């Protein structure tokens, strides 16, 4: 039986050795006490090494950061994202038929999400990108090209705060557990069988800790998500389903979330190791066009 709590517990928390140095080259406007901040005074096409170091530090502090009115084009976006590390290409999008995101051929690392009257949005599930990889994404840089007049916001959840908010007994129960992550129930279900059989040998299911340690901040974060986590290793399916449902629902609490209203030229950068995200599908049949670059990550521990 899982403990019953009265609701989320939340507080501002940074690592014990965090040095709270003011940001001198841009202003930071937090969206919530724990996650999300809008950054003003930065041109992402003109970032020197010292400024980039501050942007990265701000990302670690706020988990997702936003920049409005940027003049970034597709190539600029890839160049900037590459400063965080190697870029990922996605192996499944071209196999998804009508549901596929349009992937520009001149920049293979850039994925285009073009939604409108013909194709509605369907990313409205809390998830962590590419947790089905042995080394899931570090994060991503997402740029708004065309936005609907109303709706189409994206939400992010702070999975460190979500872990901290669990009952002590639940944290003790999950700290050493592992879970399997797989793409078959999501991407696989939208592909024909030949594509699944061709891709499966290169992308088997993987096992990750239920609670991962952030490699830069040392923060403990929940690392299971509704899209890609199939079960907890060594637990029968009913027990696994019940525990995972309890953990998934941590992302549902508004106290752990921020919400961003897009404007053309706005850019979001998020830390995939510390967050989940959810794209609100409330704008159909209006147009919403975004482009994303994903940054390769490391193996969770």
Question: Can you give a write-up of this model?
Answer:
The chain is α+β, with helices and mostly antiparallel strands. It has one domain (27-295): Double-stranded beta-helix (4-Layer Sandwich), CATH 3.60.130.10. The chain has helices spanning 49-62, 74-82, 159-164, 168-174, 193-199, 237-248; strands at 27-30, 37-40, 64-67, 110-115, 139-146, 154-158, 178-181, 206-209, 211-213, 220-222, 229-232, 257-260, 267-271, 275-279, 288-295. The strands form 4 sheets. Strands 1-2-3-13-5-15-4 form a 7-stranded mixed β-sheet, covered by helices on one side. A 3-stranded antiparallel β-sheet has the order 12-6-14.
Features:
7-stranded mixed sheet; 301 residues; globular
What's this, in brief?
With 301 residues, the chain is an alpha+beta fold. It is 18% helix and 24% strand.
DSSP, total strands: 15
Helix proportion range:
10-25%
Spatially, the strands of the biggest sheet line up as 1-2-3-13-5-15-4
- Assign the CATH topology: Double-stranded beta-helix
Note the total helix count: 6
Residue ranges: pLDDT <50 for 5 or more in a row? 1-6
- Reading the helices and strands in chain order gives EEHEHEEEHHEHEEEEHEEEE
Q: What's the mean pLDDT score?
A: 90
Q: Largest beta sheet, briefly?
A: 7 strands, mixed
Apparent shape:
globular
**Proportion of beta-strand residues:** 15-25%
Determine the oligomeric state from the structure: single chain
User: What is the CATH C-level name?
Assistant: Alpha Beta
CATH H-tier superfamily: Clavaminate synthase-like
Rg to the nearest angstrom? 19 Å
Measure the end-to-end span. Answer: 27 Å
């Amino acid at each position: 039986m899982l403990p019953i709590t009265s609701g989320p517990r939340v507080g501002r928390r940074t690592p014990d050795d965090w040095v709270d140095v003011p940001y001198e080259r841009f202003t930071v406007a937090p969206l919530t006490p724990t996650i999300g901040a809008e950054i003003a005074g930065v041109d992402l096409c003109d970032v020197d090494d010292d400024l980039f170091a501050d942007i990265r530090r701000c990302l670690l502090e706020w988990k997702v950061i936003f920049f409005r009115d940027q003049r970034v084009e597709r190539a600029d976006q890839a160049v900037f994202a590459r400063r965080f590390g190697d870029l990922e290409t996605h192996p499944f999008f071209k196999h998804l038929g009508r549901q596929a995101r349009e992937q520009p051929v001149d920049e293979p690392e850039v994925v285009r999400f073009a939604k409108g009257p013909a194709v509605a949005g369907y990313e409205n599930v809390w998830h962590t990108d590419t947790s089905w990889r042995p080394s899931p994404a570090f994060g991503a840089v997402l740029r708004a090209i065309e936005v609907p007049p109303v709706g189409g916001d994206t939400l992010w959840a702070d999975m460190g705060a979500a872990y901290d908010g669990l009952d002590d007994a639940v944290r003790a129960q999950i700290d050493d557990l592992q879970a399997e992550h797989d793409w078959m129930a999501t991407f696989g279900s939208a592909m024909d069988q030949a594509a699944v059989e061709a891709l499966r040998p290169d992308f088997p299911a993987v096992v990750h800790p239920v609670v991962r340690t952030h490699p830069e901040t040392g923060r403990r974060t929940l690392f299971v998500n509704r899209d890609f986590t199939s079960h907890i290793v060594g637990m029968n399916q009913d027990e696994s389903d019940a525990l995972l449902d309890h953990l998934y629902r941590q992302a549902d609490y508004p106290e752990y979330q921020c919400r961003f209203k897009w404007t053309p030229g706005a850019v979001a950068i998020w830390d995939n190791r510390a967050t989940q995200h959810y794209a609100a599908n409330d704008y159909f049949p209006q147009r919403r066009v975004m482009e994303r670059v994903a940054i390769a990550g490391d193996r969770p521990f």
